[in-house]
Please model this.
Amino acid sequence: MKISKIFIEDYRQFKNFELDLTYPVGHDKAGKPLEKVCIIGQSGTGKTNLLLFIKKALNFLGEISKLEQAPQGIYEAHLLDILSKFEIRFAGNPEVFSYLSFFSPRTFSIRPRFDPITGQEEKVFLGFDNQQIQANYNLLTGPPGNRGIRFQDHAWRFLKTYPFGYLYFPVDLANYQLSKQEEVTAEIKPSSLFEGIDLNTHAAHKSWERILDEVKRYDEAYIERSVALSKNETLRKDFDEWKNTAYNPLKVLAQELLDDVLNKFNLRVNQDTTFERKEDIGLIKIETLQGVKIPTDAWSTGTKHLIFSALPLFALKPEKKIILFDEPERSLYPDIQTKLIDILTKETLTTDCQFFFATHSPLVASSFEPWEIVELKFKEDGAVYQEHYFEGERHVDNYVIHPKLLRWDGILQRVFDLDAASQPERSLVLNQLAQLKKILEQKDISKNERTEKWEEYSKLAEKLNWDFEELNK
Amino acid sequence: MRKIDKSGVLSTVYKQWLDNLEQTQKSHGRYSSSKRKFYKDIVMNLYHCQKGLCAYTERRLCEDKHFDAASWSLGKYTTETPDTEGQLDHFDPDLKKNKSWLWDNLFMVLGKANNGKGSKIVDDILKPDTADYDPFKLLYYDYEFDLFRPNETLGPLEEQRVQYMISTLCINADYVKLHRKPFLRKIKAQIELGKMMTWEDAEEPKQFPTAFEMLRREQALNQ
Model:
């Protein structure tokens, strides 16, 4: 299930805010929900709030999904609170959870809605009003056959058919506390109807224990085969074949995911799995390229952030889920930021998931197509709007900003709206250079003057490392 | 990427060892295990042949004083090796397994270019030490965009091959251009604004000599 549209009538800085999260016209996947979305914007424009809004709305659906099995009344109070705020429309397209809205109090209604053009009945429409919900509350829990139950039936059938869930990576992912956080025990596969995993409350590092179980199984199978081999040399071929084909989780984790990046920090995953007790190996082991082991408490913040971002995805291998990342670039050096999105969206980690990244990093934003970027800006009244990167129809050919094709300074100026290309001091020097150049280009200046001006020019140019394309434009 | 003459072998002990292996068709041994034996003899001799420049990008990697012939004694490099950004590249990565120390397959290159090239398949059309390699027939330098392109006189197939190798050898990588354009801009300004020399009498620069020479020839044509 993926989100293709969000409408927020009135929620914090969002007023009548609408997001189209589909591929534009002219794209091979036109009309289908985006596979990844990058949310950018000045501090306070609501990047994190948007992620939290999605999380909250999905939690709401999770509550609905539990309703059928719950004893009457258990969820009533909680539901009343949430149901008063959300409007949900279940789309005809089974792959798409197409409409996710947040409404201010409005008329309570559970009614079929008709498309004004075709006259066709749409699937389900649900709206609530704080004022009237008490009066109509019995519609939710009343006897079968009433409209409330009809809604529940619809919702339940939909959720059962299209299970969903999310995985939320907060900003301070690396600030874990071993003792306080819960283990990630939840399933995040299609088999679970709904599961929301918030890594604020679940410990990202604990997902290692899931991987560890797989590592142990591999080790046991390895030892079993080694023993058999020592008794019967003819098994060598079978053993070699098994080694080449068996799933070795640590090797995959190292070679396909982490080592590429860790190598840049002069680190790698220690693939030595010789340990006696599960408790001895509380977390994945890291060592320098020279083989020196790095204790977990000595990991850099960037190393932690990277590993804690990748481990839960590797351990849970989510399918058809919504993955929410808040500032995934935290504490990572620029060259790694440029590769981060490719790493986290690797096909080997997730299946058919939809990613939302809220970021301050131009380098992260450069990994996205223009239609995948949601840039939030303040209006005069303090509410926010989305700045569009296209002119006219929302068509792939009408986009005027292409982050993947811009230089980093271009991204800063065009996507992140930085007013200047550098500090004002550079502009002053450029002006001086331009004036000197004009003098030096004159043919009739004296030799002495040329020498003098040239010295001045080259001294200034040296300060800019002779890197000033602007003067030639 | 200029032509490289690798006939000036100063590390003769290594060369004898290699020739002996080649004559007897023995394996070179694992790349890492015999690393210490002749590694610095090879690296410094390559710098000597390449005049301290990256074989592909022509970035300066090593100062002249480190690869002066006086640093060799009895066929061995005897001086302390400098720290550089260079790495030993096996031009054809397939030869790394059994012919890891083959002189003809080795070049000193900028570390980033070595990583960028990785184990990609190579085409000898842009191998700088081959007898018929001529950068002025195969390449063209576009100063405005700071790009090496296949020479326009090439046929479509050759053009494609050259373009593939320009990309494989990272000749136009951003980390190269970051230095190349400002470097050439400075020389151009010295000539055109400072009038410190003319295009004709300008000496070969300390790095990026091929781009400079192509720019010089273009200026001569325009005058």
Observations:
- Chain A is about 35% helix and 15% strand.
- The first strand of chain A starts at residue 2 and ends at 3.
- Chain A has three domains: 2-162+320-415, 207-304, 424-472.
- Chain A touches chain B through twelve residues (CB under 8 Å).
